[in-house]
């Protein structure tokens, strides 16, 4: 009988580490490639155990979770987490509702509305797609000319990119924080340090261990609850003006560099949590 299913569409270090951790702990793990998966929505599902959702594709992730969850399978994270954490606007509004400090943001629904609000609020500002990861299509708008060029290009893209999410450019040290939450605990946290204003590891950021404070843990617990998460990555910045602010919650978080620099066995902790949920 399967204890845990790892549902993936790309095998990364994280998925391999989960499989190896399962072998060491004698956990019955099955690896399922979502690209080869067809789910009969009218039949009782196969034996999946608890599913740890690791699909990189936003749409595969959401739809496979919806199908499995609808058939009664426990999926980590649940569909609501995928929806809420997968959209920066949704996340922002939920964080505010739960009392979590965030960078100031505005959403505009046309080029003209975006440019008008930028003229009122001033530059620089950061424009982000509401759906996306790894820092892609996130741009710093330094002036009106830059804003016009970038926003004009997005007016011809898929409709989601015509929702212009405009965030304050947070004055902070040259780093941000990635905290890995397993349940209601930060199991490890890193600084992501970069000379560039973007600190994503995929864009060349450098990882160093970050000491977890009580303030950080309390803030991350609230952020996790806001998106109804089980296992998430919470990204924070140290604002010169506001102190700690949460700017993103990651539904299918990467943790390779966190394991490397913090020497914490995150894959084993994830599997222990999944087995605890199963019971």
Count of all domains: 3
Which CATH C-level class of the largest domain is it? Alpha Beta
- What is the mean predicted local confidence, pLDDT? 94
Order of helices and strands: EHEEHEHHEHEEHEEEEHEEHH
Sheet with most strands: strand arrangement: 11-10-9-12-13
The biggest beta sheet reads: 5 strands, antiparallel
Helical stretch count?
Answer: 9
| Helical amount | 25-40%
Radius of gyration: 19 Å
The shape, in one word, is globular
Q: Which fold does the CATH topology of the largest domain refer to? A: D-amino Acid Aminotransferase, Chain A, domain 1
**Count of distinct strands:** 13
Proper CATH architecture of the largest domain: 2-Layer Sandwich
Low-confidence stretches: none
Give the structural class.
alpha+beta
Span of the ends, CA to CA? 14 Å
What are the defining features of this structure?
279 residues, alpha+beta, Dna Ligase, domain 1, D-amino Acid Aminotransferase, Chain A, domain 1, 5-stranded antiparallel beta sheet, 9 helices, 13 strands
Give an account of the 3D structure.
This protein is α+β, with helices and mostly antiparallel strands and 279 residues long. It folds into three domains: 73 residues, Rossmann fold, CATH 3.40.50.20; 64 residues, Dna Ligase, domain 1 (2-Layer Sandwich); 101 residues, ATP-grasp fold, B domain (D-amino Acid Aminotransferase, Chain A, domain 1), CATH 3.30.470.20. The protein is built from nine helices and 13 strands. The chain has a five-stranded antiparallel beta sheet with strand order 11-10-9-12-13, sandwiched between helices. Strands 2-1-3-4 form a four-stranded parallel beta sheet, sandwiched between helices. A four-stranded antiparallel beta sheet has the order 5-8-6-7, sandwiched between helices. The longest helix is centred in the N-terminal third of the chain and has 13 residues.
């Amino acid at each position: 009988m399967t204890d845990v299913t790892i549902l993936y569409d790309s095998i990364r270090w994280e998925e391999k580490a989960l499989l190896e951790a399962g072998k060491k702990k004698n956990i019955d793990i099955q690896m399922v490639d979502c690209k080869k998966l067809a789910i009969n929505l009218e039949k009782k599902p196969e034996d999946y155990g608890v599913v740890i959702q690791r699909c990189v594709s936003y749409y595969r992730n959401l739809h496979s979770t919806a199908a499995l969850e609808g058939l009664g399978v426990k999926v980590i994270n649940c569909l609501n987490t995928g929806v809420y954490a997968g959209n920066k606007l949704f996340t922002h509004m939920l964080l505010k509702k739960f009392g979590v400090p965030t960078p100031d943001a505005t959403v505009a629904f046309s080029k003209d509305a975006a440019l008008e609000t930028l003229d009122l609020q001033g530059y620089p500002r950061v424009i982000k797609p509401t759906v996306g990861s790894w820092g892609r299509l996130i741009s710093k708008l330094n002036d009106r000319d830059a804003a016009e060029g970038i926003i004009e290009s997005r007016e011809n893209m898929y409709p989601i990119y015509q929702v212009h999410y405009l965030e304050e450019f947070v004055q902070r040290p040259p780093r941000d924080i990635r905290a890995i939450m397993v349940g209601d605990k930060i199991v490890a946290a890193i600084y992501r340090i970069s000379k560039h204003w973007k600190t994503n590891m995929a864009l060349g950021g450098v990882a160093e261990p970050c000491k977890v404070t009580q303030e950080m843990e309390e803030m991350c617990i609230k952020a996790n609850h806001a998106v109804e998460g089980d296992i998430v990555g919470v990204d924070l910045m140290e604002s010169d003006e506001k102190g700690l602010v949460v700017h993103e919650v990651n539904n299918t978080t990467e943790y390779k560099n966190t394991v490397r620099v913090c020497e914490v066995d995150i894959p084993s902790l994830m599997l222990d949590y999944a087995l605890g949920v199963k019971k």
